[in-house]
Design a protein that fits this description.
Layout: H1 3-23, H2 25-36, H3 40-61
Helix pairs in contact: 1-2
Amino acid sequence: MDSDLFWSALALVLVLEGLFPFLSPGGWRRTFQKLLSLQDGQLRFFGLSSIVLGLVLLWIVT
């Protein structure tokens, strides 16, 4: 894997992660507070779902 591609992907992740708190800080704060109230198993499920979705999208794109 080309290191430029890795750093470009990381930069894109940071841009996408920063959009929601920039555009709607109150909504981001409420969402984050709801996440804090979830149980460990629920957080793990969402984390696993994100990983699987990301891998499927990566497989489709490449």
